[in-house]
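Task card 7
Instruction: Convert sequence to structure tokens.
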Amino acid sequence: MLAAGLLYGLVVASALAARRAPRALELVAACLTDPQFPEDELARALTCPEPMFTAVVLAAFAGLRVSEIARARREDITADTVYVPDGKGGQPGTVPTHPYLWDVISPRPAGLLVVDEAGREVGGHWLSDRARKTFNDMGMNEVRMHRFRHRFGTVIQETIGDLRVTQECLRHANISSTQGYTLVTGARRASAIEGLPVPGARAGL
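Output:
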């Protein structure tokens, strides 16, 4: 189970990653002002009505992009694997299925998991716009659906501590992209500094 209630700090990103993902810089400010970012937001977002609830679950527990959420189908998800047939760049991919996601998705019938009120297929832009309006109505004016994909990668990195594992879970072709999506907790930064050795001659000071 992924850890919850983590204290989030800065984005670990090279200059290249920052240029490729400018939203990462915006996330830094949010992290520094909200010590529970984004777990409190996720808890609130999980109270959304459909179809936003399912979209949030797919973003937060499978790391799907909005375009992938819009195309996600029940038959592509098993108790073990989430299959993404058409990921970024048209590349297929897979992600292990989180138990909570499976609890939510398993009773659903075959077909698209996120549709509009008339049961019609939606696109990524529609989903992004509807999510923004839903979150704004809930008082979460700075929250966007992609925030929960960031959370997915960040908590995996914090829990596992292996950037390559995080890269595979996010399905990034380039690890520099993973760095731009990955946050480092304040607690880990503090621990790193506290662990700096003191030369023996000065240790008693």
